[in-house]
Amino acid sequence: MAKELPLKFYSIDTLAAAKGLLGKYLVRRYRSKTISLMITDVEAYVGQDDKACHASCGKTERNKAMFGRAGRWYVYFTYGIHWMLNIVTESEGYPAAVLIRGTDKVWGPARITKFLKIDKKFNGLPANKKSGLWIEDRGFKVKESEIKRAPRVGVDYAGAWAKKPWRFYILGE
DNA sequence: GCAGTGATCATA
DNA sequence: ATGATCACTGCC
């Protein structure tokens, strides 16, 4: 039982979408091979008021994907080496996204993109089979009581927003 | 603990 | 045009 998540799955409240993604499978079709990883760690970035969100300083060439339709990928490059994978949420025009931070087999936002060969090409593409990168529901249920919360990582500069427990994860860490 | 790495953005 | 910044990783 593997059901591709419809794009409308993402056009809801970002925190709800973030929690909903735990236990789902990130699937990459690459050179006739299919790799799947269960999502276990995510962070929510919500709107222009969120000082930790890239969109807090307005729309730019880099972050415009976050302002687009839900269910698209927002992929950006940072620290000169790393690609970060996010899925856009909520309604078009409202900048919000969920960062995929960890999976069962590969942990670490930059490691995931490296492992799955994800780069700028995916920025703005829809999360469906056609794009080669999508998310599936394979029937794995995550109980609300199993979801742990923590402040987001690497956003100390964001003042009060840095304290918001918008990181959601299951298993260890 | 902190260097490495380079696209992106603001400033000019 | 230049300089600062950066949702990280890996090595010291």
What does this protein structure show overall?
- It is globular, with a radius of gyration of 15 Å.
- It has a domain at 12-22 and 40-125 and 148-169: Methylpurine-DNA glycosylase (MPG) (3-methyladenine DNA Glycosylase, Chain A), CATH 3.10.300.10.
- The longest helix is centred in the first third of the chain and has 8 residues, at 14-21.
- The protein is 9% helix and 31% strand.
- Strands 1, 2, 3, 4, 5, 6, 7, 8 and 9 form a 9-stranded antiparallel β-sheet that branches.
- It is mainly beta and 173 residues long.
- It contains 2 helices and 9 strands.
- It binds a DNA duplex (12 and 12 nucleotides) through residues 43, 45, 52-54, 57, 60-62, 76-82, 84, 86, 99, 101, 108-111, 120, 152-155, 157-158.
- The beta-strand count equals 9
CATH superfamily of the domain at 12-22 and 40-125 and 148-169: Methylpurine-DNA glycosylase (MPG)
* Poorly predicted segments: none
Q: Indicate the CATH architecture of the domain at 12-22 and 40-125 and 148-169.
A: Roll
Radius of gyration, whole Å: 15 Å
What is the overall silhouette? Answer: globular
Give the ordered list of helices and strands. Answer: EHEEEEEHEEE
CATH topology of the domain at 12-22 and 40-125 and 148-169: 3-methyladenine DNA Glycosylase, Chain A
The fraction of residues in strands falls at 25-35%
CATH class of the domain at 12-22 and 40-125 and 148-169: Alpha Beta
Summarize the amount of helix as a percent range. under 10%
